[in-house]
From TrEMBL:
It comes from Bradyrhizobium iriomotense. Pfam families: AP_endonuc_2 (PF01261). The keyword Isomerase applies. The keyword Ribosomal protein does not apply. Residues 109-292 form the Xylose isomerase-like TIM barrel domain. This is Sugar isomerase R00627. Keywords: Isomerase, Manganese, Metal-binding. InterPro entries: L-rhamnose_isomerase, L_rhamnose_iso, Xyl_isomerase-like_sf, Xyl_isomerase-like_TIM-brl. GO terms for molecular function: isomerase activity.
Amino acid sequence: STPFSISADFIADHNRRLEDATTEDYDALKRALARHGINADALVDKVMAFGVAIPTWGVGTGGTRFARFPGPGEPRNVFEKLDDCAVIQRLARATPTISPHIPWDKVDDYAGLREQAATHGLAFDVVNSNTFQDQPEQELSYKFGSLSHTDARVRAQAVAHNIECIEIGRKLGSKALTVWIADGSNFAGQSNLTKTLDRYMDAMREIVTALPADWRVFLEHKLYEPAFYSTVISDWGTSFAVAQELGSKAYCLVDLGHHAPNVNIEQIVARLVRFGKLAGFHFNDSKYGDDDLDSGSVEPFRLFLVFNELIDAERRKAEGFAPAYMIDQSHNVTDPIESLMQSAIELQRAYAQALIVDRAALEAAQEANDALGAHLELKRAFTTDVSPLLAIARLRAGGAIAPISAYRASGYRSQKAKERPAVTGTSAGIV
Ligand code: PSV
Ligand code: MN
Ligand code: MN
């Protein structure tokens, strides 16, 4: 039997009850924005064009190193993951692409997988490689590292895996590879801090050489975990220096949870833009470190400030500025579909709020050293409730005015619980 899906009629029915109130709120916001010389309809168009990739692994319940508490009706393979990604896009209309993780999403027929995605209106974005775990069929272990391993055979195996990811990505229609390695050390003295980086560089050069002409590689840095004393690609400085040495195809990816505590992430973003090396983002939120909490759930102002830098770069037509957006979260206590829809909305919110900053007024205040005036301009934009505008963007794109309530009313999860018998314990691709 055909798997249950949420129909366009169901969404239209659900919207009907909310449409009048939404339009009323939107009209009020439109008038308020007009007083600042902002055209709300043009903003709606921009929001409708905004897209962030869903990671295929994000639709499964996450877990910590202590436990994973699987939810009902979880996807059991990449095709079922596609079905869930399709629902997220159908209702919230902000996630037209998906980002695969290899080998979690390995299949025999990638053309078929790509076609299946296309039937849902989805396309594949950046491919993620994985040399941070051992796979059953794998010859050599990554316990002591991958691309920076002391043993040349392990490095060669990790390089070959990344090249295989590029091959798979080509079949899926991707144009970039993200490399995050868990390499590092857990004891002072365990590794030679210089030699590990040299070995990584040599391995990365081989991967860069294997990239097709129109491909890029994204280097994802991370301060700690699972290596708790030192990490080879630990911070944006290392990432930037490595990207410089690797040349014009290498860029630096910013995962919001991968920085030292209290670091000014928006300034890192501005620096990477300035030097033409910003690859894009793994969006999530964090309280302590790489918590992988839902985007905008803890520090919405910081998210807004990141988007403020992105809009500034876009307006200046910063050279080579084309950031790739992906959500990278671990949904441990929520239905992942709900979390991902809400996260995509929070990203659109930060984007829309950054768009309504009066750039001329901000610049004038900055030039006049009017610190509070400049700050108040940002605060005005940040405190504007753009929710009705986001709802109208979804409505015009054929989505749901209230995606989470529509999703709950549809009974999708309980249908899936019947169609997909429970997954027990941990399984590949559900991290
Ligand atoms: C590592 O913490 C990371 O952020 C990388 O992007 C991985 O690919 C991802 O998490 C998924 O585990
Ligand atoms: Mn990440
Ligand atoms: Mn992470």
